[in-house]
Amino acid sequence: MLGGKEMKEKYKYKNGVFLARMQPMHKAHLEIINIALRECEKVTIILGSSNKRDMLRNPFTLEKRKNWLALSLPYEVWFNDRIKIFEIPDWSLENDTNETSLWGRYFYYNVVSRIGSKRFTIYYSDSPDIIKNWFHETEVEEYITLRLLDRGKMYDGLSATKIREAILKMDLDYLNKYLPEPVLKDVEYLNEYYKKVVSHPKDDFSME
Question: Is residue 158 part of a domain?
């Protein structure tokens, strides 16, 4: 077991945060989590859109997503208390960009209340401009370090959208290549569930 001084010297950052919807979880998600675990003393994974399900881009339940994530992570990170998972609900439509700085504050203070620190590093693999706009010229900007990763270079630009398309087609070669084992074991369930969603999807919504 590492002592306090050794722990500080081993990791580049104290608190790492990774936000993702994981609809469903895939190997690029795991790669980002593993990078964060190599670089951070503690890692918090936030499952987004916790209040949405049965939609084309948010089909699967929060319970399923939590279970896939928990089963995909190594026992050691749980045993050493290095990782935590919590969820955060959406408060606007998926493509609404009118309240980005308000969302940034909402996200920031939710994280602070969970990890007990106002400084943390966010791991992000989508367009850098999206997340920069969340915090630009706000009172929280100085407390956040952005660790921007190029998803286009990770697993050939793998995305949950491509995974969902492969689920509908039951493209098992693709799914075997890119899904973690706990998700792959659910592939028949995923196919049946997502087909029902596609046939009668719920509409996206914004909080009142």
Answer: yes
Written as tens digits, the pLDDT of the chain (208 aa) is: 333 444 455 899 999 999 999 999 999 999 999 999 999 999 999 999 999 999 999 999 999 999 999 999 988 888 888 999 999 999 888 777 778 889 999 999 999 999 999 999 999 988 888 899 999 999 999 999 999 998 778 888 899 999 999 999 999 999 999 999 999 999 999 999 999 999 999 999 998 8
Measured CA angle at 25 (ends 20, 29), to 5 deg: 60
Query: Domain span at residue 56?
Result: 12-199
Q: What are phi and psi of 141, to 5 degrees?
A: -55, -40
From the list 95, 90, 110, the residue with the least C-alpha distance to 50 is 90
What are 17's two structure tokens? Answer: 């945060």
Token digits of residue 126: 């989508």
User: Does 70 fall in a domain?
Assistant: yes
**What is the rounded CA–CA span in Å between residue 190 and residue 169?**
11
pTM: 0.91
Q: Around Cβ 121, how many Cβ atoms within 10 Å?
A: 20
CA 202, CA 60: separation in Å to the nearest integer? 12
Paired with 84 in beta bridges are 44
Residue 97 and residue 88: Cα distance in Å, rounded?
18
Q: CATH number for the domain including 60?
A: 3.40.50.620
